[in-house]
Design a protein that fits this description.
mainly beta; rod-shaped; Immunoglobulin-like; Ig-like domain-containing protein; 122 residues; 3-stranded antiparallel sheet; 4-stranded antiparallel sheet; 1 helix
Length: 122
């Protein structure tokens, strides 16, 4: 009889036990990925080098810059303004002779990728 009475008194307290501090389904995590270059190619079209690049990810509008090199010798720089509507850029450089060309792409002060075209041994 005492056990039955004890169960009746403790029933409301035991029925209210649940995990309040741990969510049963965790919230969805939205990763904050930095800007990245997903597609980049450096090709020759006659006497012109053509660099095409696409920037993906979440980024503030800014300039995508390229620095051109033939081996270790710098050839020049260029930049294109990108925003959410314009994520692709095309750069050209006149290069009549074959060489070991490199294009270093940077965005927001950070180097993102280097693309190479070796027509001769570096």
């Amino acid at each position: 009889m005492r056990a039955l009475l004890l169960c009746l008194l403790l029933a409301p307290a035991l029925g209210a036990c649940r995990y309040n501090f741990v969510p049963l389904i965790p919230p969805q995590i939205e990763p904050q990925l930095p800007a990245r270059i997903t597609q980049a190619s450096l090709t020759r079209d006659g006497e012109t080098l053509r660099l095409q690049a696409q920037v993906d990810g979440r980024f503030e509008p800014g300039y995508l810059g390229v620095a051109w090199f033939n081996g270790a010798a710098p050839l020049g720089t260029d930049s294109v303004y990108l925003d959410a509507a314009q994520r692709r850029a095309t750069f050209t450089l006149r290069a009549p002779e074959k060489g070991a060309y490199r294009a270093v792409l940077s965005f927001g002060g950070a180097v993102l990728r280097q693309v190479e075209l070796y027509e001769v041994q570096p």
